Amino acid sequence: MKDILIGIASDHAGFDLKQGVIGWMEEEGIPYKDFGTYSTEQVDYPDYGHALANAVEDGTCQFGIGICGSGIGISIVLNKHQKIRAALCHRPEFAKLSRMHNDANVLVLPGRFITIEEAICSINVFLSTEFEGGRHTERIRKI
User: Strands (DSSP E) along 11-139, which ranges?
Assistant: First the structure.
């Protein structure tokens, strides 16, 4: 994980969780790029979701983490981008399957519904799980 750049973005509802994740990433020495927001002041999640998606699409960041209150809004924004496969994951098991079967490149977390510990567990699983390929490759191509 220490040799890849992770993009991270949130709206105001995901800000506190994002800050917790960033603190953990700094402790672990995981390189990241913060696309905002930078406070709990009300903002629009599409502004930050598009910035994150662009960075993953152009290769600036190898993976992304998107956070909003429910995770739904930023997921919709991220998945509007052709090269993004964003997966909203409330539990590590979903994060694992999103990588194994869907080759997800952005993990989305629901800022109002999980703890920092749960988020870190899902991030660890997401970043350490490889895409299985095989029968899943053709499915991904159809997207």
Answer: 32-34, 63-68, 86-88, 106-110
Model pLDDT, residue 1: 62
For residue 123, what are its two tokens?
């991030």
| Model confidence pLDDT, tens digit, residues 66-83 | 999 999 999 999 999 999
How distant, in Å, are the alpha carbons of 13, 33, 61, 109, 121 from that of 70?
8, 22, 24, 8, 18
CA 8 to chain centre: 7
Any catalytic annotation for residue 90? no
**Residue 111 main-chain phi, psi, to 5 deg:** -55, -30
Q: Which of 50, 90, 101, 136 is catalytic?
A: 101
Q: Which of 68, 81, 89, 136 is catalytic?
A: 68
Tell the residue number behind the tokens 């299985």, with chain if given.
132
Who's near 26: CB < 8 A, 6+ residues apart? Answer: none
- Give 94: exposed, middle or buried? Use CB within 10 Å, 0-12, 13-18, 19+: middle
Farthest CA pair distance, the chain = 45
Asked if 68 is an active-site residue, the reply is yes
